[in-house]
Amino acid sequence: MEQHKFSVGLLTELAPHEHPELLGLNKNAGEAILLRLRTDRYDGFRLYAEVRRVLCHELTHNVWGDHDDNFKTLNSRLNREVAEYERHLKDNTHSLMGMGYQPISAGTEMMAEATAHVLGGSGTPVDSSNLSPAERRARVLEATLRRLQAEEKEIEDMCGSSSQAQAHNP
Q1: Domain WLM: where (predicted)?
Q2: Which of 29, 35, 40, 131 is the 20 to 30 A CA-CA neighbour of 78?
Q3: What is the pTM of this model?
């Protein structure tokens, strides 16, 4: 926040019954930021990574109102900076057992997503053993980009900051 000179007057929870169509809301370029922390049924909390992405999205509204290319560039930069910071923290942590942080391999998950077959889908499953390493990497990259684009679209669709600004400035 210091690096980007962001200022937030109030950071608070957006309860599931308040604007159920929204994941986050930035009022008046940082006067208040509201984030949905709880699940829709109040039976738990949303994943930290999801809340963090929405926070970066709403902080971007401190600078840019619309979801244009300027907005997307800054939002991507903020998410990258936060991920780098968190990676730095993980790399410098130690466990009592001396094993350190052991993340689940993302490559396996991404490969499964890239080669998955959906029941009832029209496509046929791909036998990944017939793919070259370059083709596997390309499929993993494509699947990852589709997933990230879908997540970003969901955040944009459930963002009240730009629609609120448009409602006040026809």
Answers
A1: 1-149
A2: 40
A3: 0.60
- Distance CA(129)–CA(74), nearest Å, equals 39
Q: Which helix (H) or strand (E) holds 144?
A: helix 133-157
Flag whether 143 is in a domain: yes
Domain that holds residue 23: 10-168
Entry field: residues in the chain: 170
What is the number of structural domains in the chain?
1
Angle between helix axes 133-157 and 106-115 (nearest 10 degrees) is: 90
Q: How far is CA 19 from CA 13, 78, 96, 170, in A?
A: 12, 25, 43, 21
Exposure class string for 36-56: b at 16+ Cβ within 10 A, else e: bbeeeeeeeebeeebbbbbbb
2 in a structural domain: no
pLDDT digits over 91-114, tens only?
887 666 555 544 444 444 444 544
92 is a domain residue: yes
CA 13 to chain CA centroid, Å, is 17
**C-alpha distances in Å from residue 80, one per residue of 8, 75, 85, 97:** 20, 9, 9, 30
The answer as to whether 4 is a domain residue is: no
